[in-house]
Design a protein that fits this description.
Order of helices and strands: HHHHEHHEEHHE
Number of helices: 8
Strand order of the largest sheet: 3-2-1-4
Radius of gyration: 20 Å
Largest sheet: 4 strands, mixed
Strand content: 5-15%
Length: about 250
């Protein structure tokens, strides 16, 4: 795929990035940074988050090798339904649904981690923890990186299986079902967004929703770039991934 094609595939992310850049630099503190420093912080944040999400793709073949051993232990095998293969980059799926799914899952995991920290600190954590710190925090960077890598690997696996039309076949019952169908889209998005709002106990509902929108605008470009490049990676590595998954049966309509 050419550079022009890639730019056309990720242009919504570039539009949102430019929008937040202009607002933050020239008008107001829109994504938690403002003024001259926003000029490089916004770009740095975008590339940092995108890189953290994309790097785990390198580990995908090894992750699939491990999952294959698990399925073999429980009398399962992976089959490919040719009629359900779909590797096309589409606006609805790659520009809206999957970025929202990634953002929702990230917020859901972050919320659970914050709740655990709140319990361990006897309720000593307030809603300000969901906001970016005024200066670099190594501990916070480690947590956000861990969450991003976890989300990247989980979604990469599920999206790959879905794009290649791979389903789970129970050798005993003959049942064929979709892997990860219970993750869905609506549930993690709703729970993730609600969790972030509920953490902002010391803020008004309007202010909490405003912070949520700002966080979505920050995360949307990296997640869009991530899922578009994921689709490109799968199209180039399909045969290798199918070998690692030991897909023995191909069902053609």
């Amino acid at each position: 795929m050419s550079i022009t094609s890639i730019i056309m595939a990720v242009w919504p992310a570039l539009i949102v990035l430019i929008f937040t850049f202009v607002i933050s630099v020239f008008f107001t503190e829109f994504t938690f940074v403002s003024g001259a420093k926003a000029a490089w912080l916004i770009i740095l944040r975008f590339f940092r988050l995108s890189l953290i999400l994309l790097l785990p793709l390198i580990c995908l073949p090894w992750v699939f090798t491990l999952t294959t051993y698990f399925f073999q232990k429980v009398s399962m095998e992976l089959v490919q339904l040719q009629r359900e293969r779909n590797q096309e980059i589409t606006p609805l799926r790659n520009w809206l649904l999957r970025p929202l799914q990634g953002i929702g899952v990230s917020m859901l995991i972050a919320t659970k981690l914050i709740y655990l920290l709140e319990i361990s600190s006897s309720g000593g954590i307030d809603g300000s923890i969901v906001l970016p710190p005024p200066s670099f925090s190594p501990w916070r960077f480690l947590i956000t990186t861990t969450v991003a890598i976890t989300v990247s690997l989980a979604l990469s696996c599920l999206w790959t299986l879905d794009d290649l039309g791979i389903r789970l076949h129970n050798r005993k019952t003959g049942e064929v079902r979709m892997i990860g169908k219970y993750l869905g889209l609506i549930l993690p998005v709703v729970l993730g967004f609600y969790g972030i709002i509920s953490l902002s106990k010391n803020l008004s509902l309007l202010m909490a929703i405003q912070y949520l929108i700002q966080m979505i605008l920050i995360l949307y470009p990296p997640f869009l770039v991530f899922n578009v490049f994921h689709a490109l990676y799968i199209s180039r590595r399909e045969n290798r991934l199918l070998q690692r998954l030991h897909v023995k049966t191909q069902i053609v309509p």
